[in-house]
Backbone:
């Protein structure tokens, strides 16, 4: 199996090396130009998996502990794993990428001489590439490289080759150097770890609450802005997801900061964020529909799934239209101006005297009170829900749970990690149930809408199939509803109350 | 790791060319492939220019202390390694007789982390070696030439495997077809009716395949656009879709 080692040379020329290799019995071929593209997701999933994905001319190379290559028949750079032919490479990549799409992190060209040595059967027993003239932004690299392949079973010849390369003044790349692609990325100032939306920022328990709320909102504003372009371009569904979550978190923090933020700032932010949030709803719901489709139709027969294809097409078309509306709004002067000004207002400290009545109080005290209130509200509403409660009220409970969760996430800098994780685990179990219920509820409604928009002449079998799918989704909704009481009782328990008490006691205050 | 074997009771049906070319096509789609040449004739080993020799012979390889990794050789195709044949493999049945029928499976398990696909090129016939292959393999790739006799051996294989506890999938495919011949077309059509798992791609009888002995390389490396190379590419796609259906 091919793996190998890379050497780096810093002297000006490679003539001495080429002469030495030829004298040592190695063929050094004429150079060819190789265009390399370094690929990863927006959030660096390939990097986090300990891998590096590059496309060298028409060959994709996934390098990690082992090197695997795949030749891509299409001249295009793959966007998602399913752009590749079925097989283990695609499976491995699909596992790493999940729903995210690949983006180009960097491109560079190089001139590469093949180096080989063959035995009397014409079999390659040593193989390498001399890589020189690496041209990458911001400018050419001065170094040259030799990438030596391990040729299993013929190790001695590879060692001979490595020794000649070292004798010519090169040294092996170490872990700090990484690969040639890593060196190019560093030179271009690209962080292969990618972008991460972490709602938690370092906070000081004793600082004025206004400062803490401002820092949290500034961090969330950065997350919103970071995901706008990817949402507009519809690169993958995670951009909208992350943008929507950052908007929701922001709205929630603004709401919790009613007595902390300056009234004009809070009101302005609440209104503008609400209008952005409202338009993100339909495309996100439709994204979930498309992502969950295979799961939704999993229990139906192949004939039924085939008959549902027009509905799926209709949902895809609605999704595209919803994305167009959203992209138009996100591109608008109004939204661009708001986001710029919102970030600007949050960038610098604000005098607590301009804030609400809690603006100057210690941050930890204000946040503790907000968490207490959010939990009380969640429990009060949850305890009032019975089998006869309308779905809308269950949905309101889901919002209560989210508001509490956002507080814990956004002000996580004040909370002990272990206690927060333990409490969030209990809250999440309840949220999962509420989410399942709500998704099924929304998707039944969307399905009915999609059916109403089907063109005339649609086969009757499609309508019958939709009936079956609605029935299946409704059963899922009902199952979630039936399970609610048990989930809520598990949440509204001494264990949860103790976990929250521990969490609040552990607040840095 | 998926273990596949090109296997047929009948000889001369294109097992070895299929093994080498499918191993090549698998590696082109990014699979890490180990091609294990179990045929003492060593044709697969010859095709990839590796010396047909196992240190210590087949006896040592399948012994309790034997292991595959020390015998593996890289081929000139990235991602494709070969475990070469050795003339001593002609006695493999005798050596396997002294161990259990899962010996090949145990040996393969040890190298599973390093490969996605192990492709075993088997000698013809139903022997102790082939029974060990049936235990180790997830699927048998059965080249079937469009003749009545060849179709009959496929039926014999089915009957034999009916008695096995955990038989591998049987994936036959039409091999060495000459579509100008009516009898070939008729038998191929009958096979498709009789065998629902018959892979859709048919491998033609073409001169480019015969040149493998001269080129000593997989067809795709020296005649990538030839009908034979395209057929093996498509055949691997059929197999991959069967093995990784939801990926």
Residues:
């Amino acid at each position: 199996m091919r793996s190998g080692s890379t050497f780096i040379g810093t002297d000006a020329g490679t003539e001495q090396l080429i002469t030495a290799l030829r004298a040592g019995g190695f063929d050094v071929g004429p150079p060819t130009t190789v265009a390399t593209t370094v690929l990863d997701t927006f959030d660096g999933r390939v990097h986090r998996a300990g891998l590096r994905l590059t496309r060298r001319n028409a060959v994709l190379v996934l390098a990690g502990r082992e090197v695997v290559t795949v030749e891509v028949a299409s001249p295009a750079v793959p966007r998602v794993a399913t752009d590749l032919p079925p097989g283990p490479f695609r499976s491995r990549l699909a596992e790493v990428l999940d729903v995210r799409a690949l983006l180009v992190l960097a491109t560079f060209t190089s001139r590469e001489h093949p180096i080989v040595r063959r035995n009397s059967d014409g079999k390659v027993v040593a193989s390498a590439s001399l890589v020189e003239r690496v041209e990458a932004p911001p400018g050419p690299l001065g170094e040259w490289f030799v990438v030596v392949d391990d040729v299993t079973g013929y190790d001695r010849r590879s060692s001979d080759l490595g020794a000649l390369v070292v004798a010519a003044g090169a040294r092996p790349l170490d872990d700090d150097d990484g690969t040639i692609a890593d060196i190019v990325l560093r030179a271009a100032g690209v962080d292969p770890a990618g972008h991460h939306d972490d709602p938690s920022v370092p906070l000081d328990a004793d600082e004025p609450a206004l400062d803490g709320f401002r820092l949290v909102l500034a961090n969330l504003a950065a997350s919103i802005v970071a995901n706008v372009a990817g949402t507009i371009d519809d690169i993958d569904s995670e951009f909208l997801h992350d943008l929507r979550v950052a908007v929701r978190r922001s709205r929630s923090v603004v709401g919790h900061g009613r007595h902390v933020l300056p009234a004009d700032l809070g009101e302005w932010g609440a209104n503008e964020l609400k209008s952005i949030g409202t338009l993100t709803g339909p495309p996100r719901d439709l994204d979930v529909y498309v992502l969950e489709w295979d799961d939704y139709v999993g229990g139906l027969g192949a004939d039924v799934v085939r008959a549902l294809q027009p509905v799926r097409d209709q949902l895809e078309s609605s999704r595209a239209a919803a994305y167009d509306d959203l992209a138009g709004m996100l591109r608008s002067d109004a939204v661009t101006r708001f986001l710029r000004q919102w970030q600007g207002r949050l960038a610098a400290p604000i005098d607590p005297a301009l804030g609400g009545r809690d603006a100057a109080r210690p941050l930890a005290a204000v946040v503790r009170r907000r968490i207490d209130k959010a939990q009380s509200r969640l429990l009060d509403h949850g305890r009032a829900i019975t089998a006869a409660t309308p779905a809308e009220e269950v949905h309101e409970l889901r919002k209560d749970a989210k508001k509490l969760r956002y507080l814990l996430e956004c002000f996580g800098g004040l909370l002990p990690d272990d206690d927060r994780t333990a409490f969030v685990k209990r809250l999440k179990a309840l949220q999962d149930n509420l989410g399942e219920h709500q998704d099924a509820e929304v998707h039944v409604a969307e399905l009915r809408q999609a059916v109403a928009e089907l063109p005339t002449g649609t086969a009757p079998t499609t309508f019958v199939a939709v009936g079956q799918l609605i029935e299946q989704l409704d059963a899922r909704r009902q199952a979630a509803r039936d399970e609610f009481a048990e989930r809520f009782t598990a949440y509204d328990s001494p264990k949860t109350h103790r976990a929250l008490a521990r969490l609040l006691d552990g607040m840095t205050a | 790791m998926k273990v596949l074997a090109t296997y047929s009771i009948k000889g001369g049906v294109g097992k070895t060319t299929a093994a080498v070319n499918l191993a090549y096509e698998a590696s082109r789609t990014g699979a890490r492939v180990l091609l294990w040449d179990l045929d003492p004739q060593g044709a697969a080993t010859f095709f990839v220019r590796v010396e047909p020799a196992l240190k210590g012979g087949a006896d040592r390889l399948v012994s309790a202390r034997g292991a595959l990794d020390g015998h593996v050789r890289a081929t000139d195709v990235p991602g494709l390694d070969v475990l070469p044949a050795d003339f001593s493999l002609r006695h493999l049945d005798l050596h396997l007789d002294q161990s259990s029928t899962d010996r090949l499976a145990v040996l393969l398990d040890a190298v599973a982390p390093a490969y996605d696909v192990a492709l075993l090129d088997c000698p013809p016939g139903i022997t102790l070696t082939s029974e060990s292959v049936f235990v180790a393999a997830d699927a048998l790739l059965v080249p079937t030439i469009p003749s009545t006799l060849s179709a009959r051996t496929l039926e014999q294989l089915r009957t034999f495997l009916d008695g096995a506890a955990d038989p591998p999938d049987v994936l036959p495919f039409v091999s060495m077809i000459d579509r100008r011949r009516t009898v070939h077309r008729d038998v191929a059509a009958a096979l498709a009716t009789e065998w629902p798992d018959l892979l859709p791609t048919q491998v033609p009888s073409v001169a480019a395949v015969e040149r493998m002995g001269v080129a000593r390389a997989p067809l795709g490396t020296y005649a990538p656009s030839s009908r034979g190379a395209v057929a093996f590419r498509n055949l691997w796609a059929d197999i991959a879709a069967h093995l990784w259906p939801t990926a």
Q: What stands out?
A: The mean pLDDT of chain A is 90. The longest strand of chain A covers residues 103-118.
